[in-house]
Specification:
Shape: globular
Number of strands: 22
Largest sheet: 7 strands, mixed
Strand order of the largest sheet: 6-5-22-21-20-9-10
Strand content: 5-15%
Number of helices: 24
Distance between the termini: 9 Å
Helix content: 25-40%
Length: 620
């Protein structure tokens, strides 16, 4: 944190706060100021913290920030009260099994005891060889780590390095699993990354802004400032939502739709744009896969909505996996070449024609009947988007957890992405898709990550079931890329490179060297065998389910209140009380830490045998 001493009156820093300047100049004269970022949502508002005698005395927005220009929403404005709060815990506390009270303990005792619990539990559940395949797996699933998305990137990196790379623990997760994992599943295969394509401030450059699945005015007030500024410049603002909120009142148009009908609404817009020939042809041909031809075996049933390959027994698309791939040219030597394309977009198996078939049934009338709106509402939104998109105009799309929290969240967001690419609004000023995040570092905690199936930079964690006995096997398995191995050096080169994932070998070895240092050498596969191999789904909900069954002995929860945020809180709290030990690290004694005594529907403390360790933390 950069610290500056403020002498006399605070000049430009406080001049923007004219109503409070006299008061603040007197109170803050001689104070030191440090800059930071708001720890609530992910808009990224900058803050100034003022200190006297080593004590925080005030927190204000930073007027020098291009993100918030000194503004803070009610959450950001409460930062000082969050830090200087009588309910904050500042000493480690311990609750013995069956006890009805907390005990204050020393930090040294707490750290030593927690380390012993982790080590003993890990040794109890550690598996060196997979009993089915016989390959080295070096994993442990009877301990879980749950991190919050308020943990910064460096902390997330260390969590993953310690618990996964060091101890082989598989259940390592964070709140993004509930918050925005659907975003990553939708945007990553569409655009190559699973984050916002544009910052909120870029909405100033938009000619039309569509907000769905978000009450942006109240949930992200500082970000909502930019649509309002764009509106002053002539941009059209639209809110599509089941409720009429402050966002609706501030926008030019509000369309009411029923909950869970977003796909029908967006599909009707796509159909209208295609039917009326309103899509950005030059952009679509140059920057999308619309002309690419798909395997002729690929098909879907308009009545059931099911694609080919559906297995009703496993309820998954496990049959005919190759039928969903592109059709490829064949090189003279017999190897696979580039995907086939049809620039005229007339081939019935090209992506463009398949999309038209997919949305064919979503007429304005049919979709209006599903959504509970009028056909003219759908047509109006489609016309406004099309009119404000093209070679010299762009439209933006904003959404939040009103999309992501649905079971079909990935499909909703993917439909939104298709619409924006058809209109040519990706990769251009004032266009894009803004996934409005609810936690300060949900993206960083996902990128680093604290997610069970990925290593930093989305490198896939090796799986037991995919023949990953060696590093060479792992790299040859096609993780994140497609292409045959070079026969002269099967580990490092690919005959067909596709995107940045062709550099996966370099990414993986670089990570192994970073984690294992001088011990990572070519002779031991750079420490590859020290990485745990994933045997199945170790996501947060599955871990809680396993804890309920008694299969998880210990859980560490850093910066997330899983007793509140998990689905079915009664079920989740019962699972937590079934643990042998629990570590909670947070600013406050939350419901997770107090689950042994403060659950209104829970048992008596004497009946709860979970050993609980509470670690206080800072907020910076």
């Amino acid at each position: 944190m950069a610290i500056e001493t403020i002498g006399g009156c605070m000049s430009s820093i406080t001049d923007v706060y004219s109503p409070r300047t006299t008061f603040r100049c007197t109170r803050l004269r001689g104070a030191k100021v440090g800059s930071s970022v708001c720890q609530f949502c992910a808009v990224g508002c900058s803050q100034l913290g003022f200190f006297k005698d080593g004590k925080l005395i005030d927190v204000e927005g930073d007027p020098r920030s291009a993100v918030n220009e000194g503004r803070l929403c009610p959450k950001g404005s409460s930062t000082y009260a969050l830090n200087e709060n009588p309910y904050r815990k500042v000493k480690p506390m311990y609750r013995a099994p069956g006890s009805d009270h907390w005990e204050e303990v020393s930090l040294d005792w707490m750290l030593d005891t927690v380390a012993k619990r982790i080590w003993d539990t890990r040794n109890k559940g550690f598996v060196e060889k997979d009993p089915t395949t016989g390959i080295t797996v070096n994993n442990c699933a009877n301990i879980g780590f749950i991190g919050g998305s308020a943990n910064d990137n460096e902390e997330c990196y260390l969590f993953r390095k310690l618990f996964t790379g060091g101890l082989g623990i598989l259940p390592v997760e964070n709140s993004a699993r509930y918050c925005h994992s659907t975003t990553v599943a939708a945007l990553s295969p569409t655009f190559g990354f699973g984050a916002c394509t544009n910052p909120p401030r870029d909405l100033l450059n938009s000619d039309c802004i569509l907000i769905m699945g978000s009450n942006m005015a109240e949930a992200h007030p500082c970000a909502f400032y930019w649509p309002m500024q764009a509106k002053k410049k002539g941009a059209v603002t639209i809110h599509v939502d089941p409720r009429y909120t402050r966002t609706s009142a501030a926008c030019d148009h509000h369309v009411h739709i029923r909950p869970e009908t977003d796909i029908a609404f967006l599909s009707a817009i796509i159909r209208y744009i295609l039917e009326k020939d309103l899509w950005f042809k030059e952009y679509v041909l140059a920057y999308t896969n619309a002309s690419t031809i798909i395997n002729p075996k690929f098909n879907f049933d308009q009545n059931t909505g099911l694609f080919n390959g559906w297995d009703p027994t496993t309820r998954s698309y496990s049959k005919e996996p190759n039928s969903w791939d592109y059709e490829y040219e064949i090189n003279p030597d017999g190897s696979r070449g580039a995907p086939k394309t049809d620039p005229t977009l007339q081939d019935p198996h090209c992506v463009f024609q398949l999309l038209k078939k997919q949305v064919e049934k979503y007429t304005p009338e049919a979709s209006a009947n599903i959504c509970g709106c009028r056909p003219c509402d759908i047509i109006k939104v489609a016309e406004l988007l099309a009119r404000n998109s093209g070679p010299d105009r762009t439209s933006a799309f904003c959404y939040a957890t009103g999309f992501t929290q649905h079971s079909a969240g990935s499909q909703i967001i993917r439909t939104c992405a298709i619409l924006q690419t058809l209109l040519g609004n990706i990769g251009r000023p004032g266009g894009g898709i803004l996934a409005l995040r609810g936690h300060s570092n949900v993206q960083g905690a996902t990128d680093i990550p604290t997610l069970f199936a990925d290593l930093p930079n989305y490198i896939p964690l090796p799986k037991v079931a995919e023949g990953n006995a060696t590093l060479k096997d792992y790299l040859a398995n096609g993780h994140g890329f497609s292409g045959a191995r070079n026969k002269s050096d099967g580990m490092w080169k690919l005959e067909t490179e596709r995107g940045s994932w062709a550099s996966l070998p370099n990414y993986m070895v670089s990570l192994l060297k970073a984690w294992y240092g001088d011990y990572a050498v070519k002779e031991n596969e750079y420490g590859y065998q020290w990485l745990p191999k994933l045997g199945g789904n170790e996501s947060l909900t599955v871990t809680i389910e396993r804890a309920k069954k008694g299969e998880v002995d210990g859980l560490l929860v850093f910066g997330q209140n899983i007793a509140v945020t998990n689905p079915n809180t009664g079920w989740g709290r019962a699972a937590i009380r079934n643990l042998k030990w629990l570590v909670v690290c947070d600013l406050f004694e939350n419901e997770t830490a107090s689950v042994w005594y403060a659950d209104p529907n829970g048992p008596k403390p004497s009946e709860v045998q979970t050993e609980v360790f509470y670690l206080p933390t800072n907020s910076c």
